[in-house]
Amino acid sequence: MAVRVQEADFDVGAELAALTAGNHKVGGLGVFIGVVRDTAGDAAVAGMTLEHYPGMTERQLAAIEAEAVARWPIEASLIVHRVGRLAPGENIVLVACASAHRQAALDATAFLIDWLKTKAPFWKLEETADGESWVDARESDDAAAARWRR
Amino acid sequence: MKLLYFAWVRQRIGVGQETVSLPAEVATVAGLVDWLRTRGPGYAEAFRDTRAIRYAVNQEYVEPDQPVSADDEVAFFPPVTGG
């Protein structure tokens, strides 16, 4: 179980190989990779800058991961989230869960990214032709997180 | 008391963090917001609509009625947009 916040890109293949290395109880991995889009509605996006709350971010990510471990039989999990300036096409976030069976791996992965989006203290500043603007939180993200509430 | 501001809250106030002496009359996060509003136009603008503000005390989410004390780290920020 690990969480990391970093400016550098991540190598998905290397991260996933390291996540399950030597653990042959793993029967499948769920993986989500968030990537910078080049559009926001009708506007072209030149890039974005990710800001976060050092300390609280890691605590929130660890708490979210612990909740996933409590709910599903997870063999290994990983959250890597980038900060700083990112261009369209660049990776933002990697979430991966390994489990004996696919349903737990896929559900836990969806849970992690849904909860991360509404709880982890990151903010996106988008660059368009109109200048810079902070991305608004989306109700659809709240709804996605709410389906995991119990 | 250490205060932290992020995203547009930080931009409107003009600093990312500051250390303040907690006024005696401030007992809660909401009281702290009311006091901060009086510190200048940037603060007033940042806290104009508190429906758009989230609060953390010592790096845990709290509601506005959360008590605060001089040793606390209190953060103010908009709804999060990571992932």
Structure in words:
The complex is a heterodimer of chains A (150) and B (83). Chain A has a single domain, classed as Alpha-Beta Complex (Aldehyde Oxidoreductase, domain 3). Helix content of chain A is 34%, strand content 37%. In chain A, a hairpin with a 2-residue loop joins strand 9 and strand 10 (131-134). The longest helix of chain A is centred in the last third of the chain and has 18 residues, at 102-119. In chain A, the strands form three sheets. A four-stranded mixed beta sheet of chain A has the order 1-6-8-2, sandwiched between helices. Chain A has a four-stranded antiparallel beta sheet with strand order 7-5-9-10, with no helix packed on it. Chain A has helices spanning 12-20, 56-71, 102-119, 139-146, and strands at residues 2-6, 28-35, 39-40, 43-44, 47-52, 74-82, 84-86, 91-99, 122-128, 131-134. The radius of gyration of chain A is 16 Å and the shape is globular. With 150 residues, chain A is an alpha+beta fold. With 83 residues, chain B is of the alpha+beta class. Chain B has a single domain, classed as Beta-grasp domain (Ubiquitin-like (UB roll), Roll). Chain B is 27% helix and 23% strand. Chain B is built from three helices and five strands, in the order βαβααβββ. Chain B has helices at 7-13, 29-37, 41-46, and strands at 2-5, 17-19, 54-57, 60-62, 73-77. In chain B, strand 3 (54-57) and strand 4 (60-62) form a beta hairpin. The N and C termini of chain B lie far apart (31 Å). The mean pLDDT of chain B is 97.
